[in-house]
Amino acid sequence: MSSIIYKPRKESMKLIKKGKPNDIKIGILMPIPYNAAINSLFFQTAYEYINDLEGVIAYRYVYNIRDDVLEALDAEININNLDAILISMSFELDYIYVARILDKINLLHRHKGFKKPILVAGGIAVTANPLPLADIVDVVVIGEVDEILRDMIYVVGDNEPLKYLETFNCVSISPFKDKAKRCFVKDLNRALHAVKQFFPLNEEPVYGYGIRVEVSRGCPYLCAFCMEGHIQYPFRYRDMEIVWKIIEKGLESYMSKRVIFYSLAFFSIPYIDRFLNKLIEHSIEASIPSLRVDQVTKERLNVIKKLGQKTINASS
């Protein structure tokens, strides 16, 4: 079997962009299966945002772990003709999958050097520990990519992209000896967020159908066991009006009136109780993320039940 196959899905909200021969070509690679990858807001947001840029076109790739094959979702093109591949890694186990994928398609940094496509890795795990990737990828982004994504995309289209990439404060070039500062968005209202979210018509996502909404980043509690809370510190949340606009626009073209919330400290958001009641008033169902035991009340459990959720995940 080939190391990479073209396997398009029957999707709603798939972006159709023909592009031009001289367009900057960007791959977005998730080292996990399709029905899990579509839950990634980076995957959703990067695909929408990059394709909205002038002179740029994005292609999606997911990893079929069972069949050990990389699946191209958008076009049957030579992956070596891409200018860059953005790789999102949330867990260190992803490093193994990424190394295997790139080795099979002959794109490991240790073999190709800094030739295109430029391999750019980012995510929670990468921010915490990029060093194991030194022979695997070319570049790592430390922290959140929102505020540098546009400039980074246009830079990789240059003939000498590394000369410009090394000027970004939160970017480090292999072997990652230079100290990169962590990028983070101070005002989450200005952070990127996908609205036209693609979803399969015949392959139910891991979290079910619904528009995925990031309400907050970081966490005020900084539990010792939670890497994500520390990596994304400080705790920030979007204004209630901004979240409502994302939901309104997203549900305009979605098949069900359901919202899947992403937050590490959901009930630490000051307005969240009022917001959940607003969803009930508009007959919108919701999936609530993991809760802290000390924030669970009888009233909140009744609200969660009215929103259509049947089980909860609680932790201390």
From TrEMBL:
<dbReference type="InterPro" id="IPR058240">
    <property type="entry name" value="rSAM_sf"/>
</dbReference>
<feature type="domain" description="Radical SAM">
    <location>
        <begin position="45"/>
        <end position="157"/>
    </location>
</feature>
<dbReference type="InterPro" id="IPR045784">
    <property type="entry name" value="Radical_SAM_N2"/>
</dbReference>
<dbReference type="Pfam" id="PF19864">
    <property type="entry name" value="Radical_SAM_N2"/>
</dbReference>
<dbReference type="InterPro" id="IPR007197">
    <property type="entry name" value="rSAM"/>
</dbReference>
<feature type="domain" description="Radical SAM core">
    <location>
        <begin position="213"/>
        <end position="313"/>
    </location>
</feature>
<protein>
    <recommendedName>
        <fullName>B12-binding domain-containing protein</fullName>
    </recommendedName>
</protein>
<dbReference type="GO" id="GO:0051536">
    <property type="term" value="F:iron-sulfur cluster binding"/>
</dbReference>
<dbReference type="GO" id="GO:0003824">
    <property type="term" value="F:catalytic activity"/>
</dbReference>
<dbReference type="InterPro" id="IPR023404">
    <property type="entry name" value="rSAM_horseshoe"/>
</dbReference>
<dbReference type="Pfam" id="PF04055">
    <property type="entry name" value="Radical_SAM"/>
</dbReference>
